[in-house]
Amino acid sequence: MNIHEYQAKELLKSYGVSVPSGGVAYSDKQAAQVAEDIGGAKWVVKAQIHAGGRGKAGGVKVVSSIDEVKKTADAMIGTHLVTHQTGPEGSVVQRVWVEQASQIRKEYYLGFVIDRSSQRITLIASSEGGVEIEDIAKNQPEKIITEVIDPAIGLRDFQCRKVATAVGLKGRLMPQAVKLMKAIYRVMRDKDALQAEINPLAVVAVGEDEQLMVLDAKFNFDDNSLYRQKEIVELRDLAEENSKEVEASGHGLNYIALDGNIGCIVNGAGLAMASLDAIALHGGKPANFLDVGGGASPEKVTNACRIVLEDPNVKCILVNIFAGINRCDWIALGLIQACNTLQIKVPLIVRLAGTNVEEGRRILDESGLAFISAENLDAAAAKSVEIVRA
Ligand code: GDP
Ligand code: MN
What we know:
Layout: H1 5-14, E1 22-25, H2 28-38, E2 43-47, H3 54-57, E3 60-63, H4 66-76, E4 80-81, E5 91-92, E6 96-100, E7 104-115, E8 120-126, H5 133-139, E9 144-148, H6 157-167, H7 173-191, E10 193-206, E11 209-214, E12 217-221, H8 230-233, H9 243-250, E13 254-257, E14 262-266, H10 269-281, E15 288-291, H11 298-309, E16 316-323, H12 328-342, E17 348-354, H13 357-366, E18 371-373, H14 377-389
Parallel strand pairs: 14-16, 16-17, 17-18
Antiparallel strand pairs: 1-6, 2-3, 2-6, 4-5, 7-8, 7-10, 8-9, 10-11, 10-12, 13-15
The protein binds guanosine-5'-diphosphate and manganese (II) ion.
Manganese (II) ion is lined by residues 52, 199, 216.
Catalytic activity: GTP + succinate + CoA = succinyl-CoA + GDP + phosphate; succinate + ATP + CoA = succinyl-CoA + ADP + phosphate
Binding site for substrate: 267
Protein name: Succinate--CoA ligase [ADP-forming] subunit beta
């Protein structure tokens, strides 16, 4: 689960991390009010969407009057912001974050990720902040510093100093860097985050002095931990998530939209992945990933069909069930119920195996509905690709 930049900044602030003073606004008037409240002579108006690349796409504007804050907020709110991370349809800007503009001296990159090979949270830093970390990794890999954190002892001061020194932070900024890194690591651990990205972490001028400040922050939290992260769940913005994915999760279905035309209804995530592979192997493109899970009732199967069919690209549906906890007869009844209530017009290719398979096949055969049955996954995938090609 992702959160907005302003939520990430508020979270970091509660852990003692320096962020510019600012506020969220849902309208141009509110944006102007926020700017007045925080004071100063320059502000940054930032579109709040769950995607990066806003700067280049016009979603981050530095302005120097309250009137400009208002105009900029008005121009942003309600528009579809398209960045290289949103896809061509973009994301609707429902709110902006207005903050006091910072005088940036230098931008750094700071991130925490879970490195799956070492199974540890790893700190990543670079002196080349403000740009895509992927680009730095590709073009200047030597500019990326990593430090693996032992979960038993946590992030130690010496590790922070090592990383800070490697990116060129020194003097009075050093203790700030240590404090900041440790605070973000604490957020990761306390809140079950999978990823934290501060880009840029900036050295900003404060009068004659300078200070480290988080200018942009992204967090991703582990969905499997949300049951114990009530405060994080409250930050969820469903408008930023695929509406069908949200609806599916409400029905206990695990649905992920893809861009092909073969709808998939499968039980078990592994079998669902294998089904996508089989379709691809035969030259087809799946329209979705859908795991109906164990104990799929007829209602659940009907809901699955409905959600899959809401995608106008779907030209046929591949149903692949290997029933262990599930029962093929229940799946068959669910498919018939779905056909009757949804008036399905696309062909349904059905492969059933496992518990009560004979009964399941008999129910489908005797239904009088035109199911296309397949003996195995390979045949089912081949058949669906043949159908969408025809
Ligand atoms: P992103 O493009 O979605 O990652 O949005 P960012 O929040 O990272 O903003 C992009 C760029 O805008 C940053 O790298 C900064 O150079 C600039 N920027 C962001 N906040 C400020 C600010 O307070 N003052 C100034 N002058 N520039 C800023
Ligand atoms: Mn950024």
